[in-house]
Amino acid sequence: VEEFEFAMPLLGGVLIGIASAIMLLFNGRIAGISGIFSGMLFKQGTERKWRTAFVIGLIVGGVGLKYLNPEFFTNTSGRSLLVLVLAGLFVGIGTQIGRGCTSGHGVCGIGRLSMRSLVATFVFVFAGMVLVAIVQPFYQ
């Protein structure tokens, strides 16, 4: 069993919080990734431009980190790239059905003391726990 590291997850959480606060402060928008991504696909004009720039920044940041530190991106799940992409698409569809994602509700919404976001985040976490309890026995 690996020893739990405290500092790096804490730093990551702080950086996500700071980035979300900066986006709200300077852009007047929350950093709900599923909403930003769907808006990039379906909105027009200026709305599409800033959203596209945001998504490109996420991709460039990920690719840059993979280049600097490749071991962060090893696929330890044993799943094929196709399965991982399909899983990501299903998550994206689910966030649209649920009217938001963990970044929009869990980070930005709770930070703004939104009751709707608190309930949504509770439902996300609870549903995830139930799903793990159901699926985990098949992977042992």
TrEMBL record:
The transmembrane segments are 6-26, 50-68, 80-97, 118-139
- InterPro entries referenced in this protein's UniProt entry, alphabetically: Sulf_transp_TsuA/YedE (IPR007272)
Bilayer disposition of the protein: Multi-pass membrane protein
Keyword set, alphabetical order:
Cell inner membrane, Cell membrane, Membrane, Transmembrane, Transmembrane helix, Transport
GO CC terms in record: plasma membrane
Looking at the keywords, is Ribonucleoprotein present?
Answer: no
Subcellular location, record wording: Cell inner membrane
This chain belongs to the protein called: Uncharacterized protein
Question: What organism is recorded for this protein?
Answer: marine metagenome
